[in-house]
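Q: Can someone sanity-check these two? First one:
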Amino acid sequence: MNGPHDLGGKHGLGPINPETEEPVFHHPWEGRMYGLVVAAMTGGVLIVDEQRHAVERMPYSEYYGSSYYERWLFALEKLFDEKGIIPREELERKVAEQKSTKCEAHYPAPANPSALATKVMRVLREGASNSLETGQAPEFQPGDKVITKNLHPKTHLRLPSYAKSKVGAVERQYGAFGHPGARAHGRGNEPAHLYSVRFEAGELWGPDAEDPRDFVYLDLFESYLKPAEEKGARKRHGCPPRA
């Protein structure tokens, strides 16, 4: 999806200034937001690809005016409403009630955590993998030259705009994972092979690249790629260009 989130390689967004000794969370509510989303995912209420696509659907002005975890909040509210878990009207009513009362600034952990809370803590400590098995052999191997497809769907896409129709080389084959385009739209996992693809900066940005000899590595699914021989094949074989 071509949305406000696709910022890679664009000008005019200001410098990137990493904070010195940046905290994990800048405000307590950000930590609670993170915990809510992880709990929703661990409990099977939503999956990460649905959350990402919900963020992509933010209005441009709202996206650019929001912080990272404010975008998470937007996505959670949107998905809860769409799934009928917490309708928008009920959420707005509860927010109005909270504004009229004094809220506690701290919420201590329960003395006896539930099974879900225990599972959430395990995911936070150990992580979780979406690695899957597929009966199909990978189309590409390390060293293969590939070209990214020029895709512009209205659905979820993990291929940045600056890397479309670009030639790269497969650096690594990770195995099969749930395809984000399928998972974001309720089609199940649809296991697909995932690759690390290396691109030269000059290929991505031409002579305006800061250093054409630099490399950019992107993790891309097989459906985003095709053999690079297709690009320029007519010229190599001496075929005349199309009229």
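And here is the second, same format, sequence then tokens:
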Amino acid sequence: MWIRRLILVSVLFGWILSPLPAAAQDGAAAALAWLRTEQLADGGFSTGFSEGSDPGATADAVVAIASAGEDPSTWVVEGTSPIQYLTAQATKLETPGLAAKVVLAAVAAGEDPRDFGGANLVDAVLAGFNSETGLFGGGPYDSGLSVLALRAAGEALPEGALTGLVATRLPDGSYSFAGDMTPDAGDSNTTALVVQALLAAGAGSEAAPSIDYFRLVQNADGGWTYQKPSAFGEDTDANSTAVVIQALMASGQDLSEWGHPERALQALQQPSGALAFNAATPGDNFLATVQAIPALAGADLTDVPRLPAGFAATGGSTTPILMATLVVLLAVLAAAGLLGRSRRAEG
């Protein structure tokens, strides 16, 4: 009887431990299976809008693969993995934002970003810092990526980097891609990226106004669009919804209190397993899919340094979250067994 009760408790605890429902994790697995079909002969991935592999798209794919609990180095096509594709591109990265994306991919895959394809990618990111503005590259978006990349690599931030980033926050709590301070210039994507960067850098208190902004611009279906107001439409899209979900998870928000936005993301999943950009443009969309996989798998960008331990421990067979649940279950079962033997001995 005691063992049965403890098993029930352990199952319930495992359910509570997972930040997203099993349906969302199943969606991540289906999206990951579709992603395999998109890998090109050189090991990389295209953006879906142009021919040939793209370093940024491939870096996003690597983070998605690792977030879902698989080792990107085992994704081999014609003898080449996405990691090998990225190492071949490492000395050709022209912006700190792109270098930061590849740093995140390298760390997510368990590689050394300071010695990656003959390049020190951490130095490439640092070289893009402007000490006068306190920003990296082209503005808040590049800065958010750069802060995340440097913290993932265990690198100290340049003096003034967080001050410069926070200074670009608009009164409504949002951030704009290039630092435009015009009212309503902020967007959900840049804001969500910056929130994760602030949390990774230990400045989580600065994220509160942005959390309020997410409430302000959330759609009725629980998802998010790129920008409100917008002359280009305000329908929920997969990219925006996924990155905001990641920011909310990173900040410890309970998604049930946000109307389960993961359901809005799942609603955009296509029969193939890929995700559409939004409901008005159905069809398989690569960028929407690689953005959605980590969110559906329950991982955000502050988790990147911990991802290699997940697929190393599981052999790429399950997500790190499910593995953690299994560990808890086994521990409780072991305790149940010991308790049962103790009670029999007392009887």
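A (reply): Looked at the second one. The chain has 15 helices and two strands. The CA atoms of residues 73 and 83 lie 6 Å apart.
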